[in-house]
Amino acid sequence: MGTGQKSLLLYYVLLFAIFSCHGNEQFFNDNKNLILPGSYNIPWMAGIEDFRPFSLITFPGTHDSMALHGGPEAKCQALSLRDQLRAGIRFLDLKVFGIGDSLYVMHGIMYQHTTLKEVINTVRAFLSEFRSEAVLIRIQPEFFEKDYVNKMVRNLIGNDQHVWVKSGMPNMGQIRGKIVFLQKSTFTLGIPLIDTDRKGSNKVSHIKDKDNKIISQLNQATEACGGDNAVLTYTSGTGFGTLWGMFLTPRGVAEKVNPWLNKYLRQFFPNHPRPCFGIIAMDFPGLDLIQTIIHLNTY
Prior knowledge:
TIM Barrel; ten-stranded mixed β-sheet; 8 helices
């Protein structure tokens, strides 16, 4: 092979690599630097009618939203909280541990370099800028601190009228500009939450099996939409702790699952109305995947 042919071959290999990576990054993102297109619609909830029930909205969210530290087995997100919100994420998944008068955000035993107070302040700042939006928060006390954490969260939010702590199901108009808490078992403020996860759902040995589990979970979510509960599906997973998937990190799972998830959800675009899936919480979501979930709300 001549020098010119080798150069041409190298050019096409590089071109293929660039476009392959670019295509994947539309749905999977592990870049901490957020670059939004100029036309990107940050306040997407402005397009949802005030009368639409909360339980009939599909929300893009993140699993272990603040898990930015701790190495490959612990890291689940790349974007900061501020950038997740600007990218369109409207559900936050937080595990907290109380020491003294502070609630620290954790991922297992790994401290995620922030407190719940700092998270709430960041969300409040976002909502003061984009008043058409609402941000849902699930808090999970670590190490069985249910009563202690509930008391500390109540002290933290005080009588703030921009925080929804009622168990009744609101419509979109009632929650604009507000933090909406979701309650389940160890946390008792906010709208009751149904979690479609089953034991072992987050353990991944084979990606195809994970895809099938997500389909089953989303079918369950669709059936539960429109009821008296919020519905949550996690698409995240890890091979840590399994035999065949021991090298599958959260990043490795998301890199395969996210493009598949985007394709699966887009098959419903011709439907009128489109199905509701409740909250879809992901690891490392890319902008196009977030937008696909948002557009499920367009009838």
